[in-house]
Design brief:
The chain has one helix at about 10-60; strands spanning about 65-70, 75-80, 90-100, 105-110, 125-130, 135-140, 145-155, 160-165. The chain is an alpha+beta fold and about 170 residues long. The termini are far apart.
Length: about 170
Amino acid sequence: MMKKAFTLIEVLVSIVLLVIISLFVSSTIQQTRSNNHIFAKELKNKQRVEILSSMIYMDLFEASKINIKNFKRYSVLSLKSKNSIYSISNPYIIWLVLKDKNSLIRFESAKKITLPIPKEDMNRIFADLTIIKCDNFTITPSKDKKNYLVFIKIKNYRPILFEVKKL
């Protein structure tokens, strides 16, 4: 007579093999999740930097009046531009780094902005936190003031350097 059932050892070996394969697959899935999280975070940072660069570029490119005050590691950029993210016609814009977390801030208003901002003007000025941990933000104009070199250094990120050529 022929037996058609599995022996106890065959069943145990198949269970051990199933456990080993399950451990391998679960560790692979966990590693993939971790890599996806790191990738998503890096992609978000790159997109944020790209948006920041684009905003500064467009503000400078479409500006009619530009005033730059340079300090040791930071510039204060004041300008009147055609570029607005709040649909303001020819807004006044200021870019500066605040001491709090070295935050790079963009202010936009329909009326001229004075620093420090008076409390009564707070409700008419849009403020956007663009980047934190900004170690360096400098804007250097060319001699003819038609070209501007923008340098931004963010902690734990590669430096950003680009040129804006005015027409």
